[in-house]
Structures are given as structure tokens and as C-alpha cells.
């Protein structure tokens, strides 16, 4: 069994939600007949032993692999080592470095602020609060800050979510003493503190210590702290002392860059059209990563070449399109209204110029707003070949670049389609 087969076995044994919690922090490597499992710290190792090890080993039973467990630092838990041999993995995940954070103008300020927090010893922004939707990169930047500080020789860092804090306080009587010995306190998923009210008092005590000692605090949360009605007034006030930045969800450009980068790393040869379709369909980078992983595993285990039908099947299985009531029929109605045609005219084999153009526009809008693949569009438009659909969409793309009136017309139709969706959902 190779690495790809191990990943497939895990996806069958654990749900995507379960894997999302711990898979990225677990180091896995296969050499010969040995699977080495590496933990970033002892508390993760202890958690894994209790919550996941039995199912993990059951998933790999019969694989012919023996499993070796390694923990980077069994004596100091989450403390970052003051010095590491060259090439040793970063303590909070080697992938979490600023150079790997895909950024555009929308998120330049949060990235620049995070880099300043990582580099400064004076804690100029304390606390530093990363806000944003799920999948916007908050956890990534939080860990990148901790990794960067470890490389700069910081004495110790604690990185964990509210659930981790709860487990720490449940298992150690000296939890507060342990945390105050750190130089960096980084807490993820702050909104989860609503489940553990007692932690508000502990965070308040930790906050006062870290602020007085000019030691950096970093928090990440969904939404804005100001909207958290469950926070104690004193804690809420302290969280608002420092700098809060809002991360925007990754746009199409960022998701496309991400997909291209991951394809290069895995040597997964996907066409530009397929990458664009994936970026359009999966708004969350975690789900996009999951789809790319499945495509890579399929390529490794089943066929070197992924056909259009196989590609469609994989996407349909993992479909994460936003909940929408918009349909092909509604887009057809909008286009027909614009061109004074009937839907059956567009779906027919007619080759009149106005019919062909209206058909091409409808295909383009369906791909843009519904994220349908070319074969799916071909089936929806009277069983046409996917190459015909590809030509149509590219034709409209070219026309709108060359003709401003066509570009305006497409914007008008898009707005009409989106208005239909909002009206139906309301």
C-alpha cells in the first residue's frame, strides 16, 4: 500500500468533518512496509490515542503495513524548540508559512499585519485578532505566525483551539502555569468558547499576564468579536484593545491559483478548463483540496487518464456548490426573454445566427452560474458534444472581451439570473 492508498483508506473510515480536524497536523509517510505516523506534540498524541487510533488501525488492517508512531517532543508538549536541525519540520506544520499563503489585494493588509506580528518582539498589536468566514485562511495565518516566531528563536509557543484548551485544563492542574510560560498564545476557533464558559475567566487571566509582560496573543474567530453576545464584557473589551483584521473568503482567482499549485505538487495533469471548473464549484479551499485529493488518488489507483465521464462522476459525488434554486430552465427563460425566442428553439438543431448566438450565451451563463462541466452542459442542451459546448463558451468569452455591448448584455442577464435565485430562496 502506498501513500495514495492510505489516504483513500482514511477517507473511507473517517468522515470529511473528522479528517478536517486533525489530518493536516498528522505527518504520514510510507517507506517500504512501514507507515510512520508523526505527531506535532504529546497532547495531540494523547488525543489521537483516545479518539482515533483504533479506527485508524482498523482502516489499514490487511494493508501489509506496520505502523510506527513518533512524537516530535514528548517532554514539553506544545513548546517550540529553541533550535532545530536544518531541514527539520516546522512545529505547527511545514505547509503553514507566509510564502504559501495565496493573497490578492483584498487580503494584503491582514497578511502584512500577520507578518509584522510574527517578526516583532515588542507585541505592537496585542491582541492580534484574525476574523473571517470558514475557509478564509485564519487558521493558516495563525500557524504561520507561530512557525515564523519559532524560526526567529522565540522561546515557546502555544497553538490550539478552544477544544484543545478545554482538554488541556481537564488533564493538567497546572494548565495556567504552563500557558503563562509561553511567549506566544495563539487560540483558534474563539467562537467555540460559548461551549466552555469557564474558559472565559481563564482567558481573562491569561490575557492580563500576556499583556502586562508584552508577550504576543493571537486569536482567530468566525465573524467579528463585536458580535459575540456570549462573551463576558471584560473579556470582550480586552479582545477589542488590539488589532482586528477581516479576511475575505478566497475568490475565484485565489481558488484557481490554489488548484494550480496543488496540481503541480501532485503532478496531477488537469486542463485549464477543469481547474477553472473546480475553482468555480468549490468555494471552500478545504473542499477544493478534498476534490483534488480524490482526483489524484483516482489517477494513482485506477486510470492514468481521467475521462470526462469519470471527472463528472467524481465532482458529482463531492458536489459543494452553494445552495441555489437557479436552474438551467431559468437561465434559458432569461435568455429567451432577451432574444424573443422559445426554449425549444435554443435546444433544437437550428443553425440560424440568432439561435446559435442565444444558445452560446445560455451555455456560457449555465457554466458561469451553475458550474456545470462541458459534458453536463452538452446533455442539458439537447445532447450536444462537449467540444461544441467548449467552443461556445470560449466564443462568448472572446466576444465580451472585444465588444463592450455584449459584455454589458451578459452582465444584465447575469444580474437577472441572480435576482431569480434570490427571489426563489426568499
UniProtKB/TrEMBL annotation:
Where would I find the Chromosomal replication initiator DnaA C-terminal domain in this sequence?
327-396
State the signal peptide span: none
Q: What residue stretches are annotated with the AAA+ ATPase domain?
A: 124-245
Q: Which UniProt keywords apply?
A: ATP-binding, Cytoplasm, DNA replication, DNA-binding, Lipid-binding, Nucleotide-binding
Where, if anywhere, are coiled coils annotated? none
Q: Which GO terms describe its biological process?
A: DNA replication initiation; regulation of DNA replication
Q: Which domain of life is it from?
A: Bacteria
Keyword Amino-acid biosynthesis on entry: no
GO CC terms for this protein? plasma membrane
Gene Ontology terms for molecular function: ATP binding; DNA replication origin binding; lipid binding
Protein's UniProt keywords contain ATP-binding: yes
User: Per its database record, what is this protein's job?
Assistant: Plays an essential role in the initiation and regulation of chromosomal replication. ATP-DnaA binds to the origin of replication (oriC) to initiate formation of the DNA replication initiation complex once per cell cycle. Binds the DnaA box (a 9 base pair repeat at the origin) and separates the double-stranded (ds)DNA. Forms a right-handed helical filament on oriC DNA; dsDNA binds to the exterior of the filament while single-stranded (ss)DNA is stabiized in the filament's interior.
Q: Which family does it belong to?
A: Belongs to the DnaA family.
Q: What is this protein called?
A: Chromosomal replication initiator protein DnaA
Q: Which organism is it from?
A: Desulfomicrobium baculatum (strain DSM 4028 / VKM B-1378 / X) (Desulfovibrio baculatus)
